[in-house]
Write a structure and sequence with these properties.
Shape: elongated
Distance between the termini: 32 Å
Radius of gyration: 20 Å
Number of strands: 6
Largest sheet: 6 strands, mixed
Order of helices and strands: HHHHHHHHHHHEEHEEEEH
Structural class: alpha+beta
Strand content: 15-25%
Strand order of the largest sheet: 2-1-6-5-4-3
Length: 285
């Protein structure tokens, strides 16, 4: 819902703080604690999304949702624990960076309603209590959100196929082979970088295969000692760039049906890469 692991953790902490702020009688009076916690967390997310939108208006450059490491690392670093294999496919689809980017185009109410209903299958009657709307209004919000998703999302390429393309992309980038990079990119591809005003990054999307290839080769020529690693990024094959023992960039990719790269999201803001520089992530070969 929030596109930020830190903000999600804050929302969970605030939810439990409100739970434990009640006396024993107050908690005992709640028949379904999980429903109460979900309702409160949903409202907190709704408030955070409203304030986050205002903060992002003054953000330096493009804003990209926070990239997440593979579930095993993510779990060890955050206390989530092992992800059930039966839930992993759903998790991969709903934390996929392309999907999170689409969520950013929604209003806070659309986003909360859509995630709770279409991802977690909550009924509109329960969602209505969270967002303070009628069930009919929530149904309309979900329909509008679904329309946004269908308008911009394309079927994801199979993971194995994407992994192969990402590997070729890494090899071409390491070799500074502009022609090979252009051949892997859709002619109308776009690359968006997020430096947050802290790390160097293009302030606007770089559009067109040739310009993207030139930009990447120029970046590689300036960043001597850069190591590129194939990693799972938000449930899909991606690339991690490390320099001096630290992760300095994480890239996610979107491919079309022909296996060409249509979008690249490169997160360079170090505040969004903390999970990638945790001890368990840094220790990976």
């Amino acid at each position: 819902m929030l596109g930020s692991l830190a903000e999600a953790e804050d929302a969970v902490q605030e939810t439990y703080a409100r739970w434990y702020a009640m006396d024993d009688d107050g908690r005992a009076a709640i028949e379904v604690p999980a429903a109460w916690l979900t309702r409160v967390a949903g409202r907190i997310c709704l408030d955070q999304l409203g304030s986050a939108r205002a903060r992002r208006e003054s953000y330096v450059g493009e804003w990209i949702p926070e990239p997440l490491p593979d579930h095993e690392e993510w779990g060890r670093g955050s206390g989530i624990g092992t992800v059930d294999p039966a839930d992993r496919i759903t998790l991969d689809e709903t934390v996929d960076l392309a999907f999170l980017v689409v969520l950013e185009t929604m209003t806070p109410a659309e986003r909360v309603v859509f995630v709770l209903h279409d991802v977690f299958a909550y009924p509109f009657a329960e969602i209505a209590e969270i967002v303070g709307r009628t069930p009919a209004a929530c149904r309309q919000l979900a329909t509008a959100a679904r329309r946004r998703v269908h308008a911009v999302r394309t079927p994801a390429a199979p993971t194995a196929r994407q992994a192969g393309v990402v590997r070729k992309f890494k090899e071409a980038w390491q070799a500074c082979d502009i022609a090979a990079l252009v051949g892997l990119l859709d002619p109308a591809a776009a690359m968006t970088a997020d430096g947050g005003g802290i790390a160097a990054a293009a302030l606007r999307p770089v559009e067109g295969a040739a310009l993207i290839a030139q930009y990447l080769v120029h970046f590689a020529s300036r960043a001597t000692g850069l190591t590129l690693l194939e990693r799972t990024v938000n449930g899909r094959p991606g690339l991690v760039a490390r320099h001096g023992g630290s992760t300095v960039s994480v890239a996610a990719f979107d491919l079309d049906r022909d296996g060409r790269i249509t979008r690249i999201w490169a997160v360079r803001n170090p505040e969004k890469l903390r999970a990638w520089n945790a001890p368990e992530a840094v220790g990976r070969p």
